[in-house]
Structures are given as C-alpha cells and as structure tokens.
Amino acid sequence: MRSWKAFRRGAVPSNPVKTPFGLKLRRSVPLLSLPLLSLPLLLLSFPAAAQDATERTVIAAAALPRDLSPWGMFMQADVVVKAVMIGLAFATAVTWTVWLAKTIELIKARRNARHALRELANVRNVEDAVRQVPEGAVAQLLDGALAELRLSTDRMDKEGIKARIASRLQQIEAAASRRIGLGTGVLATIGSTGPFVGLFGTVWGIMNSFIGISKSQTTNLAVVAPGIAEALLATALGLVAAIPAVMIYNLFARQIASYRALLGDGSAEITRLVGRDLDSGTVLVRRHLAAAE
C-alpha cells in the first residue's frame, strides 16, 4: 500500500542509498527526473549513431549506383585502365584477324605444294615439269632452276651447275618461308606482353581503390569491391588476348614447318630432274637447238 501511495504521489521506491556515515536511507526518485538522468547517456550515444549512419550512407551511395557488368565496369574505370582495356581488346581482334588470314593462306599454300609434288613425281624431265606444275612456290623453285641452267656456260660443268642450282633453290625456299611467316610475329608479341599489360591495368585500378578507401574512411567490401572488380577485368582481358595468341602462334609454327618441309621435298625433286637431264645430255641438246633457232 505504501508503494502504491508513493507512486500516486509521483515517486517510485528505490533501493537503499548508503551515506558517507554508513547510514542507509531509503528515498524515492520522481518519475519526472528519469529523462534527465538518461540524457547524458543519449548524448554519449549520438556520435556513434551519427558515425554508423554516415558509414551506411557512404556504403549505400557506393553500392547502389554501381553496375558490375563488364560494360559498366569499363565505363566507370579510370582513364588509364580504360586505355589498357581498349588496347587489349584491339590486340584480341588482331589475333583473330591474323588467325583467319594466315589459316586461309596456309591451306592454299600447302595444298598447292602437295599438288606440285605429285606432278613432279610423275614427270621425267624438266620440260614436262614446267608444263605440269601449277603456279606457286614449287613453280618458283622450278623457274629458278631453269634460270640457272640458262645462265650456265657451254662447258657443262655438271657438278658446278648442280651446286649453283641448289644454292638458288635454298634462297627461294628461304624467301617463301619468310613470306608465309609474315604476321606470326605479332602473335608472339601479343602472347608474351598481354598478361603484363593487363597486370599494369590491375595495379593501377587497385591503387585507385586504395585512394577511394582513404577518401571514404571505410574498408567495407561494398566500397572496395567495384574498384577491385574493374582492376581484375583488365587482367582478364590480358589473359583473353594472350592465351589464344600463344596457342595460334604454336599452331602456325607447326604448319609453317610442315610447309617448309614440302618446299624442301620440291627442291630435292627438282634437283633430281635437273641432274637426270644433265647426265642424259638433254640439256645440252636443247641448248644447241635453242641456239640454232
């Protein structure tokens, strides 16, 4: 009953309070004084609440407008990172363009060389070879051998003529190999430098992410993730450019080596035909007839 009466008078009972003299006094705390007692606690909690609200605002501002699609990351990236991405995309386009052009060229060249070798295997002298062999690298080898025969003296030094023909054929083979290998050096360059260019873009992007962390004063993942994602996109583009370039370069290296072997077989076959004509005297008779005409 006493507590109820105290409550009605505007006070609530409280625990005994110990005085400096050791006496315990019971007093009541008015209800109106409770908000005044909690005011210091509220004032102390304001800075922490304000900091949390600020961090949530920064996180929301950093997370909501971000588009983490590849195109969105490209558009939001730094100028240097954009330049790296554009360069790597251009290198990728060059890689596939070279692949398409050199594939068609190598298919035609190897097919022509095989057909010419089949024709050389069926002829018995140089004149028949000139009529049967189609236009191409093997035909150029045959023209070189004939040119050397025309330039030779009437003394018919067989060994000297064969040596000169072999030297001319080697030069023609080297020129054909260089011509068929044009463009493959670009693939080697892209394959060796692509990952490092992408790594440069990654380092630059992560550096910008740390600068953003310093400005926003927060290490929350929502703030850091977009910048790191943009940086890693540069590395991904570097690998996309480099890996196909290396694989295509190795493929072309094997195909060009096979083409060189075909040209070597053509040179050997032409050398045998010329040697056969020299040993049988066909070249000498033909030269006298040409001189008489």
Spell out the blueprint of helices and strands:
Elements: H1 2-8, E1 11-13, E2 17-18, E3 24-25, E4 28-30, H2 34-63, H3 70-76, H4 79-122, H5 126-132, H6 137-151, H7 158-180, H8 184-216, H9 221-280, H10 282-292
Antiparallel strand pairs: 1-4, 2-3
Helix pairs in contact: 3-9, 4-8, 4-9, 6-7, 6-9, 7-9, 8-9
List the defining traits of the structure above.
293 residues, mainly alpha, two-stranded antiparallel ribbon, two-stranded antiparallel sheet, 10 helices, 4 strands, rod-shaped, disordered N terminus, disordered C terminus
Q: In words, what does this structure look like?
A:
There is one protein chain. With 293 residues, this protein is mainly alpha-helical. Helix content is 81%, strand content 3%. It contains 10 helices and 4 strands, in the order H-E-E-E-E-H-H-H-H-H-H-H-H-H. The protein has helices at 2-8, 34-63, 70-76, 79-122, 126-132, 137-151, 158-180, 184-216, 221-280, 282-292; strands at 11-13, 17-18, 24-25, 28-30. The chain has a two-stranded antiparallel sheet. The chain has a two-stranded antiparallel sheet with strand order 2-3. Helix 4 packs parallel to helix 9 (221-280) and helix 6 (137-151) packs antiparallel against helix 7 (158-180). The N and C termini lie far apart (151 Å). The model is unreliable at 1-14, 17-46, 58-65 and 287-293 (pLDDT under 50).
